[in-house]
Amino acid sequence: MGNNENVLFAPFGGNDPDPDAFLSMVLDGWAQQQRAKDFALATIRTRRNVVMSMVDFAGSYPWEWSLGDADDFFSHARAVRNLSHGTVRAYQGHIKLFCEYVCDPHYDWCEQSAKLFGQVFAQVVTELNHITHAQPSEARPAKRPFTQRELQELFDLADVEVERILDSGRKGALAAWRDAIAFKSAYSWGLRANELRHLQVVDYSRNAQAPYLGEQGVLRVRWGKPHRGSAKKPRSVLTIWPWSVEMIQDWIRNGLPRYGHPVNDLFPTTGGSIVGESHLLGKLHTLIDELGFPPGLDLHSFRRSYATHLITGEGFDVTFVQLQLGHEHAATTSIYTMPSPDYQRLALERAHERTIQAALGLKPSRRNS
């Protein structure tokens, strides 16, 4: 059986070992290993469910799996269940990690399965059937960033909504102001919805290289998207635009105190919790519908717009934007950086201006040089 004292043995009685009991022990051992590596409980449950889904689909136990079983499972998920490339890739990652665990000789699971069932575990996710991360684009085609014009109109309408509520005498002006600031903040720092909701005043600090931005030169994002289900992944986002600082400073000084008590959460509710994602999404859809924008916009569109406008509109380096967004892979950042119509229009205007200047015998302006 091996000499590892931490191995879980399968004490089956009689001559017929119970494969379900053995599988349960294997999965429990895998869960212990993942907890030791600080993976979230929800992630551990998800991975276990994926393994069990493949067991049910293949009609066989993991020590009986072949590459063909994996191919059929992933093909069915993509072609029949219509799951996205990203979801199927995540499934493959879960199965691959499970197979790596059970094939590791330190745990002796292969030796146990060989003695009990005459078969051993094998890795069924290889370079032959694994979807690579660097797909041209996994973004849903229907989803898109805001154009610069759409952003300006949206922010203007969000500000007008506060005035309309105040003029009507209705309640909700403070909440409308909060929502307007939240939308502008999501764009200003390229935030995911959950990152945005959990922001606190103390997350801002000075940037020694940009003292003119005051106390909001750097934003510490503490609720970043975790890697492979581990703890939240923090990152620091440098402030780009001075108007973002003015906006958030005004909210901290004049908006938050209206909740009547010291508040550290940047986007609180009157009940003392933080604003909900469903509320923000509903409010955003209301504003978008009033403006009559084409479909494809959601809360994540602010993050898409941030990346797109920085790279294609303002010429920032892709690596810098990757760090700002907290992406592990540059390929993920590239998904957000399709040139926008605004970028194409400005590029054409610059080309026309250079042509006119050349025809008039003028030197190119610094902006176009």
UniProtKB/TrEMBL annotation:
Coiled coil: none annotated. Residues 150-349 form the Tyr recombinase domain. The lineage of its organism: Bacteria, Bacillati, Actinomycetota, Actinomycetes, Micrococcales. PANTHER family: PHAGE INTEGRASE-RELATED, PROPHAGE INTEGRASE INTD-RELATED. This is Tyrosine-type recombinase/integrase. Keywords: DNA recombination. Pfam families: Phage_integrase. It comes from Glutamicibacter bergerei. The keyword Aminoacyl-tRNA synthetase does not apply. The keyword RNA-binding does not apply.
